[in-house]
Amino acid sequence: MRASLIQLAVSAAEPPAERRARAATLVRAQQGADLVVLPELWPLGGFAYDLWSEGAETLDGPTSDAMAAAARAAGVWLHAGSIVERDPDGPIYNTSLVFAPDGELVHTYRKIHRFGFDSGEAVVMGAGQEIVTAPTEFGTLGLATCYDLRFPELFRALLDAGAQLLVVPAAWPARRREHWTLLARARAVEEQCFVLACNTAGTHGGVEQAGHSIVVDPWGRVLAEAGAGEQVLTVEFDPAEVGKAREEFPVLRDRLLGIPAPVQR
């Protein structure tokens, strides 16, 4: 299969509507790919907290409309990164959108682990509650977002739900870039899955982004890695390598679920 990760540059100097149109053009240019991935919160910026409330949109809003049309035009599965979702009956969420090649919005994932500790996303956004996978003709996608990478228990749950390709859009800062690549490789090795991790470039909310989107195979080998700036990272690989790796090195069958109770003496 062929996957294209669009490492989009995000800047306060570009209005969201213009960036939305530019992202749609980049998606349409990926005809021939099987899967296209965009970063986290690219319409507004992952650290542009002051824009989130006013710029939040529903699942049938302008970003969804533009991405549906782009997926349909390119004939690709599109993980359109995430938006600030306005739930009419609740808080705002960091929500990923997955479109089928016919442009239908088939899966959404609300980010479970919110970054910021006592500020930012952790305070103003609601937490997702559902593990989400997306079956496709080339394998089952497991959905996670950015800060989720630091929580291996989520990826174990995605593994148990049948995930073979872990797709992780992000707005990961440059100052922690080494963590980004290390954790992407760790999740690939742990779950014996492909990891497709698509980051933003540029600076938003005053925070420089790491870029360095990365594709990792089930052995932890880096198949492709972007630089720091805007870039479309395209890589071809065989999803059947997941099954081969699990058969050749059957570590997953030795899992012990839970921690044994202490022995009473």
UniProtKB/TrEMBL annotation:
Top-rank lineage group of the source organism: Bacteria
Keyword Acyltransferase recorded: yes
The protein, known as: Acyltransferase
Family: Belongs to the carbon-nitrogen hydrolase superfamily. NIT1/NIT2 family.
All residue ranges annotated as the CN hydrolase domain in the record: 1-239
A Pfam family of this chain: CN_hydrolase
Gene Ontology MF term list: acyltransferase activity
Alphabetical list of PANTHER family matching this protein: DEAMINATED GLUTATHIONE AMIDASE, NITRILASE-RELATED
Swiss-Prot/TrEMBL keywords: Acyltransferase, Transferase
InterPro entries referenced in this protein's UniProt entry, alphabetically: C-N_Hydrolase, C-N_Hydrolase_sf, UPF0012_CS
